[in-house]
Description:
By secondary structure, this protein is mainly α. It has six helices and three strands; from the N terminus they run ααβααββαα.
Amino acid sequence: MKGNGGISNLLVEICKQRRNLSNALLADAGVHGGQDILLYQLRTRDGQTISELVEKMCIQYATLSTMATRMEAKGLVKREKDGADQRVSRLFLTEMGREAFHEVASVWRQMERRLSRDLSEAEQQTLKRLLEKVLKSL
């Protein structure tokens, strides 16, 4: 796909390649793609409701519920009923989940180094500025 099309095609290819590499590295850390974002959200604020997480992660309720069930089975998170409203479930990191997040953070740092290894500091800053402009235009 190199050289084919415009900016959109290039961004699609970059995203695919990054996702594939990231998923392989996360799998080595025992985490599936997408679960890293959930670990991050809970690391940022533990005990969020499923609804809060669905909104923040921009995924369907059923997707998050399935992900949480799998992560709960692996001992990464635990579900608890809300003290004030028993209809509401909250997700919490377990100790194993906190340790898994350290692995995830390491993968993210590795990905950042990989993405920028052939760019000078000035090129990295320029690319970041340009990508922010592209994002803003969407």
